[in-house]
């Protein structure tokens, strides 16, 4: 799209030490038949009528490949809610991208999976809300969802798609973690991602219902460690530990504006999926500018690149190249300042109060879940 | 699973893993679920011999001949490299 200009922006970026991105998460839609209470979509969901057209997504995929993106994640909401999903996969593969579908499975039929296979889809990541219908359907807020998902998993296996099972775990289903790992083996998955719920998006409103106890968090780490040894060479286990109970924060996105980017259904380009919770940031849209210009020159990307924006204690901390000061969105949510040290960090003045709050959340009784809603039409 | 491969093992790059020329960074990468692994020239040379037909023994012979290196050394290095990929489920043997 921007030809020679794209090269200029890249040269300018290289001079400033900005690497080309590796991964693009394309949120094709915020529509989803499920309503998980920890959904990472923003609380203000993008309207269906504002979603990018097929042609625009195709152009975005081509621009992304030109920019250096290797991995494309087709996500949502539920990406299968897009009627043009197969067309989009064909375009992504044509652009040379490794194409991964992140799905709940709902909306995929045997026929559609065969079409995705023919389209060249590389990999499927199937979410798991629970290991039986009772728990999974309650968490996902969708009756019959679990049985349907198991059917879809069977078709995925029959076709032979490489599969990752994606288990989001929290206080209400952590007891099912060993079974989730067993299910990954039974489904012939090569990977399982065990992610203890991260408190962004809808999950923020559900901390009382979902916060794991410290004991649960430790037990989860133990189960993962044991399974990694036992299943070496058979199942790869990626693990996201319980943030609030840790002493050091998570690495943010592998470094803000260094590795990946997200595109919201309406075309806004985000440095991370929760970036819209930082009110001071302004986001560019692929309708107005090329992806290359947005990546190298966009203010949302440049604001937290490098470490010039950091405050103490991060600024003089020897871990700043490891975790980049933690999550900007979490600093915003918990400290009210997106440039603050992530309050999960033991060096943050807010750390102790946060750990106390985490314990209180984890001990609350009979907390109601707030389910995510559907985007307006 | 540790150690190298047996000479009769036939390594296979499974579905969902691809060797890819990264035209922007101008290097070879191995693309796999959630991962893009940069391949150095040696890694690329080894994987280029993996065609799903040749045994590990014949792969090491071919590499030894091509690069004029001792066969045992190649078998040890290539075996370790491929075993590492197997542990990450980027490679299978039949
Ligand atoms: S987290 Fe749940 S509600 Fe949100 S997109 Fe995924 S499946 Fe849908
Ligand atoms: S002070 Fe900042 S850089 Fe240091 S460990 Fe904590 S969050 Fe990371």
Fill in the keyword field for this structure.
heterodimer, A: 377 residues, alpha/beta, 9-stranded mixed beta sheet, 14 helices, 9 strands, globular, B: 94 residues, alpha+beta, Arc Repressor Mutant, subunit A, 3-stranded antiparallel beta sheet, two-stranded antiparallel sheet, 3 helices, 5 strands, 39% helix, binds iron/sulfur cluster
Shape of chain B: globular
CATH superfamily name of chain B?
Coenzyme PQQ synthesis protein D (PqqD)
> What is the number of E strands of chain B?
5
Largest sheet of chain A: 9 strands, mixed
- CATH architecture assignment of chain B: Orthogonal Bundle
User: Which stretches of chain A are low in confidence, meaning pLDDT under 50 for 5 or more residues running?
Assistant: none
Range of strand content of chain B: 15-25%
Structural class of chain A: alpha/beta
Overall mean pLDDT score of chain A? 93
Strand content bin of chain A: 5-15%
Number of domains of chain B: 1
Could you walk me through the main structural features you see in this protein, from its secondary elements to its overall organization?
The complex is a heterodimer of chains A (377) and B (94). Chain A is an alpha/beta fold and 377 residues long. Chain A has helices at 3-15, 54-67, 85-94, 110-119, 133-140, 145-159, 177-186, 207-210, 214-230, 291-297, 299-303, 320-323, 328-335, 351-362; strands at 23-27, 71-75, 98-103, 123-128, 163-169, 191-196, 236-240, 260-263, 269-270. Chain B is globular, with a radius of gyration of 13 Å. The mean pLDDT of chain B is 92. In chain B, a hairpin with a 2-residue loop joins β3 (27-32) and β4 (35-38). Chain B contains three helices and five strands. With 94 residues, chain B is α+β, with helices and mostly antiparallel strands. Chain B starts with 10 loop residues before the first strand and ends with a strand. In chain B, the strands form two sheets. In chain B, strands 2-3-4 form a three-stranded antiparallel β-sheet, covered by helices on one side. Chain B is 39% helix and 20% strand. Chain B has helices at residues 41-48, 56-67, 71-87, and strands at 11-12, 18-22, 27-32, 35-38, 92-93. Chain B has one domain (11-89): Orthogonal Bundle (Arc Repressor Mutant, subunit A), CATH 1.10.10. The A-B interface holds A 20, 22, 66-68, 70-71, 96, 98, 100, 122-123, 125, 160-162, 164, 190-191, 232-236, 238 and B 1, 14-18, 20, 22, 24-25, 29, 31, 33-34, 36, 86-89. One iron/sulfur cluster (SF4) binds at residues 248-249, 313-314, 317, 319-320, 323, 325-326, 341-342, 345, 347 of chain A.
